[in-house]
Amino acid sequence: MRIDLHTHSTASDGTDTPAELVVKARAAGLDVVALTDHDTTAGWTAAAEALPHGLTLVRGAEISCVAEGGISLHMLGYLFDPTEPEFAQARDLLRTDRVRRAEAMVERCRELGAPITWARVREIAGGGAVGRPHVATALVEAGVVADVSGAFTAQWLANGGRAFVEKYEIQAIDAVRLIGGAGGVAVFAHPGAVKRGRTVSDATIAELAEAGLAGIEVDHMDHDDAMRAHLRALAGDLRLITTGSSDYHGTRKTIDLGENTTDPESYGAIAELATGARPITP
Ligand code: AMP
Ligand code: FE
Ligand code: FE
Ligand code: ZN
User: Does residue 148's CB lie within 6 angstroms of at least one atom of ligand 1?
Assistant: First the structure.
């Protein structure tokens, strides 16, 4: 069983439509794939409708969070009820503020001499939850940077960078509770991704575990071997599920589907804990 529990589509900052994504997932030899777009479930229906034979779809989302008074982090929610009003409203607020913030980042880029426009960025985002990768793509098109990762520097869009603008984020502990309240399962995405910015302490992860966090993502491209070993030991101490995933973003990142995977026992434990939605097997 090959299981990849973290991917993005055009519903947020991936480059494959949800339908293309599930077809590619099967072609890549996956048996289970989770669609986890940033702050949205907008891709769920199209992914389910295009699901190829032999592939199970886990419906999820990756929620923009903050902890320790200013450290950004991502919380994966799996198999929650998308109509549960409190969590649905939280996702709505997150997406709405993404628009304000992306427009402000475009303005900063323009002030810094980059000839990009909000109209073009909106077009690139194509109605999906808009984020820095869409602004980055516009900067690539304008010849300002060579590739998307070239825009994630202090010159442009990296945390604290010249054109960086903060977005609204919900407290991580609230995200854990909202996901659980909608019958879903919370897994902390890439908790040790130190190159993206500051990361939270083990004590904070322990507090989140107390509040209902079910697991942490261990095998991820942003974790080196030492970080993976550390997180695995921490998960053992806190009795958390460990997962692995590609965090595939299509052509916006170099990683391919299935490059990191989750073992069947961990996946089974997540599916068993969830009460808000079921995995879909055509
Ligand atoms: P946002 O949610 O708008 O703040 O943008 C964060 C997204 O940017 C992440 O989900 C990644 O997809 C992408 N990202 C973050 N750091 C990098 C990087 N160094 N290179 C390429 N993409 C990145
Ligand atoms: Fe992303
Ligand atoms: Fe993430
Ligand atoms: Zn992600």
Answer: yes
Q: How far apart are CA 28 and CA 11, in angstroms?
A: 21
Other beta carbons less than 10 A from residue 49's beta carbon:
12
> What are 248-272's pLDDT values in tens digits?
999 999 899 999 999 999 999 999 9
State which ligand 1 atom lies nearest to the alpha carbon of 62.
10
Q: Is the CB of 128 under 6 A from ligand 1?
A: no
* Residue-wise pLDDT tens digits, 61-77: 999 999 999 999 999 99
Retrieve residue 71's tokens: 């450290």
- Which residue lies with its CA nearest to atom 15 of ligand 1? 196
Residue 247 near ligand 1, beta carbon < 6 Å: no
Residues 88-145 have pLDDT tens digits of 999 999 999 999 999 999 999 999 999 999 999 999 999 999 999 999 999 999 999 9
Query: Does ligand 1 come within 6 angstroms of the Cβ of 192?
Result: no
Ion ligand 4 neighbours, Cβ < 5 Å: 62, 247
